[in-house]
Amino acid sequence: MSKVIINREIVENRWTRVIADAEGGVSVPSEGAILVPYQYWLANREALAGREVAVCFAPDDEPESLPVDANTFSMIACDFPAFTDGRGFSIGRLLRVRYGFTGELRAVGDVFKDTLNYLARCGFTAFDVRADKDINEAIKGIDDFTEFYQSSVDVPNPLFLRRPVAA
Amino acid sequence: MYIYDDYDQKIVDQRVAQYRDQTRRYLAGELTDEEFRPLRLQNGLYIQRHAPMLRVAIPYGHLRSAQVRKLAELARKYDKGYVHFTTRQNVQYNWPALENVPEMLAELATVQMHGIQTSGACIRNTTSDQFAGVAHDEIVDPRPWCEIIRQWSTFHPEFAHLPRKFKIAVNGAVEDRAAVLVHDVGINVKLNEAGEVGFEIFVGGGLGRTPMIGDLIKPWLEPKHLLTYLNAVLRVYNRYGRRDNKYKARIKILVKALTPEVFAAKVEQEWAFEKDGVQTLTEAEIARNHRFFTAPAYETLPVEDAAFTAAKAEHPAFARWVERNVFAHKVAGYAAVTFSLKKTGVPPGDATDAQLEDVANLADRFSFGEVRVSHGQNLILADVKQSELFALWEEAKRIGFATPNIGLLTDLICCPGGDFCALANAKSIPVAQAIQERFDDLDYLFDLGEIDMNMSGCINACGHHHVGNIGILGVDKNNAEYYQITLGGRQGADAKIGKVIGPSFAQDEMPDVMSKIIDVFVAHREGDERFIDVFDRIGAEPFKAKVYEGKPIRKEKADV
């Protein structure tokens, strides 16, 4: 079983990620916890009822379209097909701040050391680091920066509300 | 000037450590070219034609003399003894070794400088009026707002990987010297009738392949909402800006596709969630940033210094320099001085390490130890006593920065072009030099008056050719370098994109072409009319007729 980072720990990945094939077909294993594309879940909600299921947002999926409370899911993932596609940062932030999602928020796809700090600050708590990258090295990237100017999910108050200011 | 505290310093130091590690892993083969590229770009490191190029941020164009000395030292230690100042208030090293960049950044961090977000698909260095805080026509000092934006945009986690680069400019004066209409977001800081500060927000301006003038989407924004509103603008862009085609990825394409009204409505909708939220600026934070931009210890001086007036009468060359290179200050008895980096024979915007050290010393002696960089690629000492202008002029002459050509034809804006830049289709520096040589007669240059000439070596338009009264664009035709002319462009509050006049010219034709354009202007000029006013009155036809006189009519697809 592969490893993932969850809440700053490297643990076994218990979710099987299901990805659409080139023709858009999705083949779901018969048992176990499954992470499926959000659009697939939307179209197959009834068939998936009763399964332990998590959804994975693609960059052009809209969290606004979620028909249920986000906390219906214990885990939600966002796919980063390329780390330079920053749409998932906004999706993560919206899920946390606007839709109040409190469960595991996982980054999947092109995830490696140099993206973890930004991801963590946008509310991601789990990182499915690319298989060809060293996960033990990657986890250190979470703390590349320990001080920040802006409001973020992990430290909501911007620096100007935290900085002691001489009168 | 803004001075770092422990928080600011820690952020920059952690960046140095992060980048050192990224460089190490790249050199060890743990990061591929493709992975390293966006990471190094966000630190200002390009791989150029001959060597890497490191772009260092000069937030809103402000430098202390110690920082200027550090730039000089790095030019000597790690480069070929000179730097290049760009149109975006940045400075570039053209020849650093990739292995040395972490060390250069570590040295820069010791003087509160860095290369953060000077390139890449992120929010870039915020730019402003080089005369901010001293300009006689200033309404509101834009610098505290620039600094607030600088902090908000630095390592903003949600906007680290935008569809494309994103540039913000802030202006607070009557005359717009920050070119706000050709930025992704342009901000005019205003006062209302009650004397309250507010912002006018434009989006979707920009040059490059598809030049556009920005649209006003928010006529009045209260200061406390600045960051929540910008967050909303950026979120709409980050989510809905095109990512399938990098030539259609700038915010201007999204704004035009949606229409400015629909874009503005989407921003309002997004902003409704953010407004009055935690990023709402507090009075204390606004005041804290203003405290860094208070006036230096000015003396009480007469409006006109008698010795200065006498020196102008006695030394015509000094008077000429004052006319062109000295800008009216809001404090009586003071002036802002522009050092021209456009001497004929020198690449526009370049300065040597020795010149930089001289400038640092002059800043300490004459101008409270501060130096500024303009988007016209010149350096400024902003607070010089009139009584000391003559002495400063003699020093400026000595170091080669006293060419009295600010705003004139030879003060041209010019990108590094094909001599340095891997993107360029054509050289720009030799063309600039040939034109400068053609118009080297200062009396003639003065008679011609204000003409903005801007040149870019490729369609990316780093030389802002679209907004030059005369614009020159290097184009590639069958692997040969040609130059296309645009006329009628201008920057400022009535910014306008120039129009291509016809087929392009070979490099050796350019000085003659320029002479013909100037001849048409002179022939039609009434009194002291400016070039751009003559152009508006007579249109492009007389220029076309002269420039293409006797040339075979050939069709060519315009590149713009």
From TrEMBL, chain A:
Pfam families in alphabetical order: DUF934
Protein name: DUF934 domain-containing protein
Provenance organism: Chitinibacter bivalviorum
UniProtKB/TrEMBL annotation, chain B:
Residues of the Nitrite/sulphite reductase 4Fe-4S domain: 119-273, 412-549
Molecular functions (GO terms): 4 iron, 4 sulfur cluster binding; heme binding; metal ion binding; oxidoreductase activity
Signal peptide residue numbers: none
SUPFAM superfamilies: Nitrite and sulphite reductase 4Fe-4S domain-like, Nitrite/Sulfite reductase N-terminal domain-like
Keywords: 4Fe-4S, Heme, Iron, Iron-sulfur, Metal-binding, Oxidoreductase
Gene3D superfamilies, alphabetized: 3.90.480.20, Sulfite Reductase Hemoprotein, domain 1
Domain of life: Bacteria
Domain Nitrite/Sulfite reductase ferredoxin-like: residue ranges: 53-109, 345-397
Protein name, entry field: Nitrite/sulfite reductase
